[in-house]
User: Fold these one by one.
Assistant:
Number 1:
Amino acid sequence: MTTTFRKIQLEQVSVILVMKSLKIEGTIHVEPGHARFSDTWDSFLRMHDRHRFFPVTDAVVTSHDAELPVATAPFMVVDRNEVIGVFPSGA
């Protein structure tokens, strides 16, 4: 039995992820074609449904009470259970 994979061209969306004591500003990669951000986020979570963590690129991590970054990373994974809010960074 052979498995056929289809290649999907993903779209980059800049987001801010709000966590209990941190904020992560970065990029998530989603399937294109969603009119609303909430649909985009739901689709993104479904793409990573089997995993506890999801990828974020070009990440800048800051604490809620500091202006300076705690860390920066070209790639990181985020625990989906720690995210309490998300919005597009252009909003």
Number 2:
Amino acid sequence: MKKATQSFVFAALMLLAFQVSAQATKWTLDKSHAKVGFAVTHLLISDTEGYFKNVDASFTSSKADFTDAVIEFTAQIASVNTDNEGRDGHLQKEDWFDAAKFPTMTFKSTSFVKGKGKTYTLKGNLTMHGVTKPVTLTATFNGTAVHPYSKKTMAGFKITGKIKRTDFGVGAGTPSSIVGEEVTITANVEFEKN
């Protein structure tokens, strides 16, 4: 009798897990409407901006307000673009991103908490240059729309935040008077509902 009860409980839990996962919706990045950029001060007098050309992201959520969203993001380091070939090449070397050894930067969320209005606090683990650190970002949900051609539902977000490059060992030998330590992240992204 005890075995039968355990089997029933196990089967019920498996069914519940299947129902929860079946209800979760996956959203994938529309790469033609996505830009993941960064800015850092140069000589303490201006900002130098850049972005990653080759990125991918997705999230799953079963709630209409996305509060259970699990977000994953990857950027190919070799795709860094600051509109200066020499600088882009230098950023890929060992003293900066070391793209040969660490070809990707990744982020995986740990929570997505709704705040006031359309804002969310996005927390997760960022891995860059072989170092993983928790980071906190702000996400603004810009709403959903049906794409006129694909007829797919699209969701738009703007994600902002700041990290310290030296926390990840990026450009550790370069003083902050030349290249600022604080890096501002700005991502404007659209996701397609699958």
Number 3:
Amino acid sequence: MKRLVFAALTLGATLAAGQSSGFKSDWEREQEARDWRELEVTLPALPKGELIEFFVSAASSFRFFVDPQSLSVGNDGVVRYTLVARSPSGAENVSYEGMRCSTASYKIYALGHGSNWTRAQGDWKTIQPKSVQRWHEALSSEYLCPNRIPVSSVAQAVEHLRLGGHPDFRRKY
């Protein structure tokens, strides 16, 4: 009888530890999705200093950068950043975006034009793995949202960008 009670207590402790380590049931995930509220967004300054380049694809002639000064990790599970896409001729597209890791989706909050932001009225869009236009998928899975879990801090996001990705996803070449 003592062994049975001990086994039950051990199983209970194991299950409790499993829940605290991030395991969530389908019901818990659905409840979180239903209760989710997006934080109010304040636009950062347009990029002026150092940008961190990240690899997207050898098939793309564009180069992609994140402004580390704009990075934030919100309590709503959204990682926000300024994205700069630069063409081979030097033309740039600048956007302030958010990435919701748990749903693998992104949203464009504003577009940079000259020295000003223009707010965008976009909705959340699912990140699609694409062979050429895959910057959101690369940024999400390899840098900011590995395993659909947001980075824990701005410092961790910057580290992943500088080192070529999350340790589980870094390219070995």
